[in-house]
Amino acid sequence: xxxxxxxxxxxxxxxxxxxxxxxxxxxxxxxxxxxxxxxxxxxxxxxxxxxxxxxxxxxxxxxxxxxxxxxxxxxxxxxxxxxxxxxxxxxxxxxxxxxxxxxxxxxxxxxxxxxxxxxxxxxxxxxxxxxxxxxxxxxxxxxxxxxxxxxxxxxxxxxxxxxxxxxxxxxxxxxxxxxxxxxxxxxxxxxxxxxxxxxxxxxxxxxxxxxxxxxxxxxxxxxxxxxxxxxxxxxxxxxxxxxxxxxxxxxxxxxxxxxxxxxxxxxxxxxxxxxxxxxxxxxxxxxxxxxxxxxxxxxxxxxxxxxxxxxxxxxxxxxxxxxxxxxxxxxxxxxxxxxxxxxxxxxxxxxxxxxxxxxxxxxxxxxxxxxxxxxx
Length: 376
Ligand SMILES: [Ca+2]
Ligand SMILES: [Ca+2]
Ligand SMILES: [Ca+2]
Description:
Helix content: 10-25%
Bound molecules: calcium ion
Strand content: 25-35%
Radius of gyration: 41 Å
Shape: elongated
Order of helices and strands: EEHHEEEEEEEEEEEEEEEE
């Protein structure tokens, strides 16, 4: 009598076997012992149910051989799956690492631009001369930098006047008297800009001593003086003093492996890192020369539009500061690490040419910001 192979359709069913005296009855068995209900033997003689006995022990021995084979097959399959997962992990690692770095680059650009835009929008106003509100140091070979003068109402908060009348200051003295009750002790050490009554002359100062009883302030020249075009002897009596923050933005390339966009508030704490892996900042200035409310933009040859520094060989020396309306700013961020399988380069932007080939991937973000406090 031959044993029939496992039939999945009866897995778990009770065993049915033939007795020795009834060879015409087929015998089958549960292929997996652990999944079958307790097996018994039904003895059939072709006429019906005769009795119930125990399963022969040789079925158990057969199942043991089958289980070992299945185990080996399962182990082999498991190994294949593990090798597959490992291979996928190994090949995916660089992709995920690159995506992380690109995401980091995007975030650095966003963080950098947000604060830059916020500061630019607050520059000027309160009688601060347009020529001093935004000062750009342009480069055609590296990163540009710029300085903003932002009125700071936190130094002597209202109801103290934010545009402080100057009672006496002859322009060459090292002290001035302000209008009664306008000074405050927290002015000490801060920066301000004094402007003549006609608005044509100005100078930055850094306050070194305040006497609030008679509103007298002593000072030294500002941290980077922007002084009177008419000379320091101009008469500032009847002019104004505005307390401000003098904010500098630069790209620090001191560590070539980690270029950083920095912001210096000139408060003695030094330049602070604002966004990492920003390797370039390019700026152009929009002057509405014809006062039509539009900043024309062509950028094919030098001086063919109302943007300065957007292409090479341009200067803003002849521009009227009062025409300045907007700043176009481009930041370029790069990945933290080089990808040796990748060939890239710092792209040409505005008046700066492209850089050499390297393995960094880069992101470029540009925005045009209107200077709210100028031209209004
Ligand atoms: Ca430039
Ligand atoms: Ca125009
Ligand atoms: Ca131009």
